[in-house]
Write a structure and sequence with these properties.
This protein is of the alpha+beta class. The chain is built from four helices and two strands. The protein has helices at about 5-10, 20-25, 40-45, 60-65; strands at about 30-35, 45-50.
Amino acid sequence: LLLAGNGHVRKDAGVYHWLSPQERQRTQVHAYLEAPQAADTTLFDQVHAVAPVEREDPCAAFAAAVGDSAKP
């Protein structure tokens, strides 16, 4: 069992990508996503929609440290 962020378990670029063909056959990739997109169904075996979580802007501290010009 591997619990990781969805980027780490994606079938096209995550840990799954580095498994042997035999390990891939025994592996199920489940994603728990706040806003699943149609493309997500090809990146995971199962996609589970979950309610969005309120969180602070992860770039706010960086933008404050370098000035507002770094914020897109």
